[in-house]
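Tokens as discussed.
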């Protein structure tokens, strides 16, 4: 963790107490990521940053590679993420191969191919929609033209992503047009400095703030060399409401989030509770999720009705909290302070 973020958390804990700046939970004990080197009917061998790791299967172990498959459909060289069974790291409960996601604003479209800008300095992505996925994609993404939102999960194929599953339903009008729910104004969003909340008119004592909405995921490593790439194992969250004058930076392109979010800084830790399964963890804010401010959608998981995205977890943290990446999201409560 960069020294500035570490110092911020130390300063906050010194002034407000350890509960105001809890240490983030370790997601790496519940997940593993790397490159497949061998498979058998009962064993998966993966090269990870720990070396060569072997994972046994349970009767209910699931495998996903664009759809539910068997272990024999995994290929040597595949990027895989393993969710370990409770009680140990040597049994795989779920395995995903070649996972990829494309989220953002369409900048170009040509037939079944779209180019998407994910915002805030992230590289543009190309998504190809196979014919077998075009029907379900058109239902949730009624207009695939420049200026419209796109969010789909699929598998990585070279430098492209085969978009197979629309993550959520998007509106039939371009970004910036049409009706859009706004955050409540009965509570003014707050800015966390290292030692206090800040509201217009002066500093006030800090206190917990809880917000509800959907949590999605992103892959900081873009599936590249995940057995050695530290971004492939990064735990934490990208947050939609970083301080624009500071941590969001001069190229900040975030809008006003649909969820009623307090302003935060990089290095802040927040508690995330998955409302679909009750699992919770403390995660660190590690990046900007400016693109999430474009989306006012709802996550269909477990009956949630809150509009707006409150965080993008890294792929590792999303899976560690019990999320299924092919579903795209889960409903969650974030508690800060």
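Sequence:
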């Amino acid at each position: 963790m960069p020294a500035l973020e570490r110092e911020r958390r130390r300063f906050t804990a010194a002034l407000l107490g350890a509960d105001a700046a809890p240490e983030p939970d370790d997601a790496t004990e519940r997940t593993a990521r790397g490159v497949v080197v061998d498979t058998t009917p009962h064993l998966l061998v993966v090269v990870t940053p720990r070396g060569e790791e072997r994972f046994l299967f349970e009767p209910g172990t699931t495998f996903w590679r664009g759809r539910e498959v068997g272990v024999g459909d995994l290929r040597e060289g595949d990027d895989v993420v393993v969710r370990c069974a409770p009680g140990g790291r040597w049994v795989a409960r779920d395995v995903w191969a070649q996972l990829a996601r494309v989220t953002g604003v369409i900048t170009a479209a040509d037939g079944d191919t779209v180019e998407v800008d994910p915002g805030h300095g992230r590289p543009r992505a190309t998504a190809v929609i196979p014919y077998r996925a075009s029907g379900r994609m058109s239902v949730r993404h009624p207009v695939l033209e420049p200026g419209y939102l796109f969010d789909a999960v699929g598998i990585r194929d070279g430098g492209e992503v085969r978009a197979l599953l629309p993550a959520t339903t998007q509106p039939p009008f371009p970004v910036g047009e049409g009706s859009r729910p706004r955050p409540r104004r009965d509570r003014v969003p707050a800015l966390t400095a290292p030692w206090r909340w800040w509201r217009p008119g002066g500093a006030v004592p800090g206190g917990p703030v809880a917000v509800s909405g959907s949590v999605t995921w992103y892959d900081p490593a873009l599936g590249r060399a995940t057995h050695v790439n530290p971004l492939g194992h990064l735990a934490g969250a990208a947050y939609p409401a970083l301080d624009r004058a500071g941590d969001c930076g001069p190229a900040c392109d975030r809008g006003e989030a649909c969820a009623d979010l307090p302003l935060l800084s990089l290095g802040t830790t927040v508690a995330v509770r998955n409302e679909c399964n009750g699992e919770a963890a403390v995660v660190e804010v590690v990046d900007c999720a400016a693109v999430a401010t474009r989306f006012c959608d709802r996550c269909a998981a477990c009956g949630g009705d809150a509009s707006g995205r409150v965080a993008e977890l890294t792929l590792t943290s999303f899976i560690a909290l019990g999320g299924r990446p092919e579903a795209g999201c889960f409903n969650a409560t974030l508690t800060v302070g």
